Each structure stands twice: as structure tokens, then as C-alpha cells.
From TrEMBL:
This is Double-GTPase 2 domain-containing protein. Gene3D superfamilies: P-loop containing nucleotide triphosphate hydrolases (3.40.50.300). Signal peptide: none annotated. Coiled coil: none annotated. It holds the Pfam family DO-GTPase2.
């Protein structure tokens, strides 16, 4: 397979089709008619319909190429000035904040039943509410389909109706589109002018089986290749030695079972192969992409295992990353992995990646019961930790050591 190009200098990688796009190739889309404004009428956008697999929602004012100054151009048909940008390949919207601070696609990966769908639902909700406020950050969906799908497939069933989410269908039959968000953080220096930094959260709610090398879809492979950071979710119940640390009431996993294709180490190895395609690194050379590895569902662990541990504390710090806390959690998860005969995972990551960090989180905050969220509702615990670390790694969040040093 040819190794894919990184985004050209000053260019962007489209967060929908993952094609690298030079700035002069980015299209504009006419703002169209609205109220008394006389713009172009909507027409079927075939490139967009091809991407979404449906003509629904693909009737839009036309796109056009223009050199554009300061991110604006006049429509050659109707003369209206527009600032709406679109990918030249798939015609999805490219938000101007994304064009201005390119890169930083965060990808989420995990085996079937690792907790991806649940995590997506909860993380986005946290970012739109509590954590977003804490960080002075906004989370904005990049297209209307993302807004609708998040509500229909994630927020409504899990957060409102408190039903567990259905198992994700394979991309062969289910939706193949990612949810695309732009997370923008305003940093106010004491003397400097406020500055906005953006990060694209591109979340494919994949079925674990889509990551098997022989079945992997092209779009999915490109997603992994384009990722500037990876969040890798691991269900502790799938780790061989972890059963001893689990509360008695928790049933054995109904997920992957003995399927070696779903083992955490095998999945991360496949992702690593994809990343090596793009970065063109030699096998012995560590990859520069930061990887956050999170044990999900840590509410299933015996309380005794967590008592007096870093994982048991709530995260400290507000609007900053507490580096002491980060180190303590990292060490504790590492110790758990080694206790559970899963130390290999940690060793492998250390060999393949220049920078990986370990996390423990719970999206639900409690063990679900008969298809429903526990009585107290969804109470996420440390769900945002991996993202805070990535923001820190990207220079978008300050790190502090409260203990000094
Ligand atoms: N105890 C506990 N179980 C969880 C949590 N998150 C997910 N689960 C369980 O794991 C199952 C699989 O989660 P899901 O998000 O569908 O996994 P996916 O296949 O990776 O998308 C769910 O049905 C839940 O029963 C959590 O935070 N705590
Ligand atoms: Mg799922
Ligand atoms: Zn595109
Ligand atoms: Zn027009």
C-alpha cells in the first residue's frame, strides 16, 4: 500500500474523508437564499451524497473554487460573499477555525464491547457542559448530521432514557460516517491577546470487527492513518487476570470472548501498522503520535482495589492538568496491568510510541442492570482525563505540579 501523504504545509486533512488538502484547493459554498437574501438555489451535491450514502440533506447551494482572501470569496453565480468552506473531495464543511489551525485529529479505537459508544455519548456531553465550562472551551458539531446522530443515537437513549446503547453494527451495514466536532479553547495570557486553539474530535463509532485487517474499510484505515492522537479504550474485563479484581456481581464479558482479533494488544497492533504507513517510520523507531490508553468501566473493580489509590480520588485541578495526579494514575494503571498479566500491552506501547499514557475511567459510574443505567443515573468518573492529557500534549492546556517540583 502506498504511504499516504501528510497534509501539505499550511494545508489541512479533511476530518470526513481524511484527504490532505492544500489551502488553495479548499472550496467555498454559496450561502444560498434565506429570508430576503437572494442567493443561489439548492442543488443536489453529488459528491456529498456519495459520501453520506444518501441524497437526503445533500441538496445545498453550490460549491465553487476561488482563491479567496481572508477565508472569504464571492459566489460567481449570485455574487454573495461567503465564508463557508468545503472539502474539494467529499464536499463536507471545513470550519474556518479548522482551516486556520489545521491538524490534530483525535481518533478513538477499541474492541467490540470496550465501551466506545457509551464513552462517546458521555464524553461529548461532558465537554458540552461541565468540562467545557471548566476549560473555557466550546464543542461545536461541524455538520447537521453530527448533531442529529448524536441526539438520536447517543444522548437520547443513554442520557435521557437511561437505556444502554445497542451494539454497534459493522460498517459493512451500519453508518460509516464519523461524528465531527471542533473543540476550541480560548487561552488568555496575562499580557498577550486571547488566542483560540482548535482540535478536531473525529469519532467513528466503530464495531470492533471493522478493525480486522482483512475487513477494514478504506475510510477507516485512512482515519487511523490521519490521526494525530489516539484514544484507545480497553475493557478491563477482557484482560486475562482482571477477573480476580472484579466485584462478584459483575457478569463475565459477553463481548469478544476468545476471539484473538478482539484482544486489546492485537487491535492496537493493527492501529500501529496503519500509523506506520503514514509516518513511514522504521520498525524500531517510535511513532510520534501520542496514545492515551484508558481502562473503561473501572466501576466494576472491587472497592478494596481502589481504596487510597489515585484512581479513587476525583481529578484535582481546574482548567489545568495536574501532573502529579497524572503520574499517580499512570503508575497505578500500569501496576494493575502488570498484576493482570497484561503488562505486555504497556511494554508494546512503550516500544512503539514515543509517548503513551495510561488512564482509568468509568463512563457510566456504576454497573448497569438489565439493559439500563444504574439507579443513580449516568455519573461519569474521570471520563475527560485522556482528552485533558491530549490537550496538554498539544499545548492547549497548561500542566501544573501542585506539590511543587
Ligand atoms: N460497568 C460499566 N459498564 C459499562 C460502562 N460503559 C459501558 N459499559 C458496558 O459495556 C457494554 C458495551 O458498551 P458499548 O459502549 O456498547 O461498547 P462498544 O461496543 O465499544 O461500543 C455496555 O452495554 C455496558 O453494559 C461503564 O462505564 N461501566
Ligand atoms: Mg458501540
Ligand atoms: Zn473531505
Ligand atoms: Zn451563489
Amino acid at each position: 500500500m502506498p504511504s499516504r501523504q501528510r497534509a501539505p504545509r499550511n494545508g489541512v486533512t479533511c476530518p470526513y474523508c481524511f484527504e490532505p488538502v492544500a489551502p488553495q484547493r479548499i472550496l467555498f459554498r454559496c450561502r444560498g437564499q434565506a429570508g430576503r437574501r437572494q442567493g443561489c438555489a439548492p442543488v443536489l451535491d453529488e459528491a456529498l451524497a456519495e459520501y453520506t450514502g444518501s441524497t437526503a440533506g445533500a441538496s445545498l447551494p453550490p460549491v465553487f473554487a476561488a482563491s479567496g482572501r481572508k477565508g472569504r470569496a464571492e459566489c460567481p453565480e449570485c455574487g454573495l460573499a461567503t465564508g463557508n468552506r468545503a472539502c474539494p473531495e467529499c464536499h463536507n464543511p471545513l470550519p474556518s477555525a479548522y482551516c486556520d489551525s489545521p491538524g490534530r485529529i483525535v481518533a478513538l479505537v477499541g474492541a467490540k464491547n470496550a465501551g466506545k459508544s457509551t464513552y462517546i455519548a458521555v464524553l461529548l456531553h461532558e465537554l458540552m457542559n461541565r468540562v467545557g465550562t471548566e476549560l473555557d472551551a466550546s464543542l461545536v458539531a461541524c455538520d447537521d448530521r453530527t448533531i442529529e446522530r448524536y441526539k438520536r443515537d447517543f444522548a437520547r437513549p443513554l442520557l435521557e432514557e437511561r437505556r444502554l446503547l445497542p451494539t454497534t453494527a459493522s460498517a459493512a451495514t451500519g453508518p460509516r460516517e464519523p461524528l465531527v466536532y471542533l473543540l476550541t479553547r480560548t487561552r488568555r495570557g496575562r499580557f498577550a491577546r486571547p488566542r483560540n486553539d482548535s482540535l478536531a474530535l473525529v469519532l467513528f463509532d466503530t464495531a470492533g470487527e471493522d478493525l480486522r485487517s482483512r475487513e477494514v474499510t478504506d475510510l477507516h484505515l485512512r482515519y487511523l492513518e490521519a490521526a494525530d492522537a489516539i484514544v484507545f479504550l480497553v475493557d478491563p474485563l477482557e484482560l486475562p487476570g482482571a477477573r480476580t479484581g472484579v466485584r462478584d456481581a459483575v457478569a463475565a464479558p459477553r463481548g469478544a470472548g476468545d476471539d484473538p482479533d478482539s484482544e486489546p494488544l492485537n487491535i492496537i497492533a493493527r492501529v500501529t501498522d496503519a500509523l506506520r504507513q503514514r509516518h513511514g517510520t522504521r520498525p524500531g523507531e517510535p511513532l510520534p503520535v501520542p496514545v492515551a490508553v484508558a481502562l473503561t468501566k473501572i466501576d466494576v473493580l472491587r472497592p478494596g482495589l481502589l481504596r487510597q489509590s489515585a484512581l479513587h480520588r476525583s481529578r484535582s485541578g481546574s482548567g489545568v492538568l495536574d501532573l502529579d495526579d497524572r503520574d499517580a494514575v499512570n503508575e497505578q494503571v500500569r501496576a494493575l496491568l502488570h498484576d493482570w498479566q497484561a503488562g505486555q500491552l504497556d511494554t508494546y506501547l512503550g516500544q512503539q510510541y514515543a509517548d503513551h499514557a495510561l488512564f482509568g475511567l468509568s463512563a457510566l459510574g456504576g454497573v448497569p442492570d438489565e439493559g439500563r443505567v444504574g439507579a443513580g443515573g449516568v455519573r461519569p468518573y474521570r471520563a475527560e482525563d485522556p482528552l485533558l492529557w491530549l490537550l496538554y500534549r498539544f499545548g492547549m492546556l497548561e500542566g501544573v505540579r501542585p506539590g511543587g517540583g
